[in-house]
C-alpha cells in the first residue's frame, strides 16, 4: 500500500484555501459576512489571543455559509481534477490511501473520482466544528496504527511535519518544487532536521479535538 498526503503533494496547492477563494468569487456576500471575521481571527492568532485549532475552525466556517455546497464542490473538482500531479496518476493504485488535514467534505469527492481510499479531518458543515482530531502529523501516524499498522510500501508528503508517518513506511519521499512536481528521498534525520521536524509539528495542527 502507498500512502499520500494531498495538498502540495499530489495536488499543487491547498484545496481548502482554493475552494474558499472559489466560493467567495461565486458568493460575493462572503466578502462581507465571512472575510472581515477571518481577518480578525488571523490577527488574534498572530497576537496569541486564540489557539491554533480555533483559527482553523474559523477559517473553515465558510463551508457552513454555502447553501449550494454540493453543486460548488462538484464544479470545483470538474475544473481542478486535471491539476492532480501527473507523476501520481502514472503510478496510482487501487489500494492507495490519501491522508489529509483538509476537511473530509473536500477530499472525499476527489478521492472517489480517483478510486482510492482516504482519511481526512472530519468537519461538521452544519455546526462548523471538528468532529474528530485534525488529521495532521502524529494524527496521521495514529490512524495508521488504528488500521492495524498495515505494510506501507511508500509514503509521499511535502512537509517534514509528516515525519512520524514517514517512519512507518518502507520508503518515504518528499515532494518539493512548485506545483508538486519533484519527488526526492526523505532526508536523513540528523540533528538539524530533527529540530526542524519538531518545530513544524509544534507550530502546526497537531492538536486534539477541543471546542469552546
Provide a descriptive summary of the structure in words.
The chain contains 10 helices and 8 strands. A hairpin with a 5-residue loop joins strand 7 and strand 8. With 212 residues, it is α/β, with parallel strands linked by helices. 31% of the residues are buried. Helix 3 packs antiparallel against helix 4. The C terminus is likely disordered.
Kindly, what is the distance between the CA atoms of the first and last residues, rounded to a whole number of angstroms? 38 Å
Q: How many E-type strands? A: 8
Q: How helical, in percent, are the residues? A: 40-55%
Strand order of the largest sheet: 3-2-1-6-7-8
Number of helices: 10
- Please mark out the parts with pLDDT under 50 across 5 or more consecutive residues, or reply none: 205-212
Question: Could you tell me the strand content as a percent range?
Answer: 15-25%
The secondary-structure class comes to: alpha/beta
Question: How do the helices and strands follow one another from N- to C-terminus?
Answer: EHHHHHHEHEEEHEHEEH
Please state the overall shape, judged from the principal axes of the Cα atoms: globular
Radius of gyration: 17 Å
**Quaternary structure type:** single chain
Mean pLDDT: 85
| Biggest sheet features | 6 strands, mixed
Amino acid at each position: 500500500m502507498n500512502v499520500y498526503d494531498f495538498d502540495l503533494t499530489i495536488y499543487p496547492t491547498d484545496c481548502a484555501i482554493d475552494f474558499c477563494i472559489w466560493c467567495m468569487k461565486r458568493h460575493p456576500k462572503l466578502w462581507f459576512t465571512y472575510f472581515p471575521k477571518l481577518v480578525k481571527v488571523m490577527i488574534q492568532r498572530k497576537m496569541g489571543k486564540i489557539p491554533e485549532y480555533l483559527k482553523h475552525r474559523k477559517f473553515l466556517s465558510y463551508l457552513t455559509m454555502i447553501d449550494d455546497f454540493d453543486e460548488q464542490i462538484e464544479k470545483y473538482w470538474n475544473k481542478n481534477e486535471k491539476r492532480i500531479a501527473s507523476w501520481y496518476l502514472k503510478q496510482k493504485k487501487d489500494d492507495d490511501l490519501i491522508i489529509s488535514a483538509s476537511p473530509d467534505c473536500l477530499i472525499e469527492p476527489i478521492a472517489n473520482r480517483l478510486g482510492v481510499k482516504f482519511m481526512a479531518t472530519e468537519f461538521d458543515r452544519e455546526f462548523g466544528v471538528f468532529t474528530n482530531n485534525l488529521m495532521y502529523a502524529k494524527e496521521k501516524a495514529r490512524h495508521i496504527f488504528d488500521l492495524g499498522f498495515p505494510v506501507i510500501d511508500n509514503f509521499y508528503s511535502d512537509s517534514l511535519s509528516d515525519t512520524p508517518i514517514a517512519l512507518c513506511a518502507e520508503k518515504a519521499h518528499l515532494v518539493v518544487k512548485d506545483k508538486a512536481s519533484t519527488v526526492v528521498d526523505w532526508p536523513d534525520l540528523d540533528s538539524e532536521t530533527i529540530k526542524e521536524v519538531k518545530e513544524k509539528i509544534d507550530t502546526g495542527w497537531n492538536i486534539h479535538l477541543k471546542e469552546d
